[in-house]
Amino acid sequence: MIPDKVPEQDVILGSGDLKKDAHIPTFEKYKELYVNSVENPEEFWGTLAKDFFWKTKHTGQFFNYNFDVTKGEIFIKFMEGASTNICYNLLDRNVYEKNLADKIAFFWEGNEPGDDLTVTYKELLQRVCQFANVLKSQGVQKGDRVSIYMPMVVELVVAMLACVRIGAVHSIVFAGFSAESLCERILDSQCSLLITADGFYRGDKLINLKLLADEALQKCIDKGVPVKKCIMLKHLSKVPEETAGCNSPPPKRSCPDLQVPWNPDVDLCWHTLISGASDECEPEWCDSEDPLFILYTSGSTGKPKGVLHTVSGYMLYAATTFKLVFDYQPDDVYWCTADIGWITGHSYITYGPLANGATSVLFEGLPTYPDVSRMWEIVDKYSVTKFYTAPTAIRLLMKFGSDPVQKYNRKSLKVLGTVGEPINPEAWQWYYNVVGEKRCPIVDTFWQTETGGHVLTPLPAATPLKPGSATFPFFGVVPAILNESGEELTGPSEGYLVFKQPWPGVMRTVYGNHQRFETTYFKKFPGYYVTGDGCRRDEDGYYWITGRIDDMLNVSGHLLSTAEVESALVEHKAVAEAAVVGRPHPVKGESLYCFVTLNDGMTFNQKLESELKKKVRDKIGAIATPDFIQNAPGLPKTRSGKIMRRLLRKIACNEKDLGDVSTLADSSVIDQLYQNRCCSAV
Ligand code: PRX
Question: Which residue's CA is the nearest one to ligand 1's atom 26?
Answer without folding.
Answer: 446
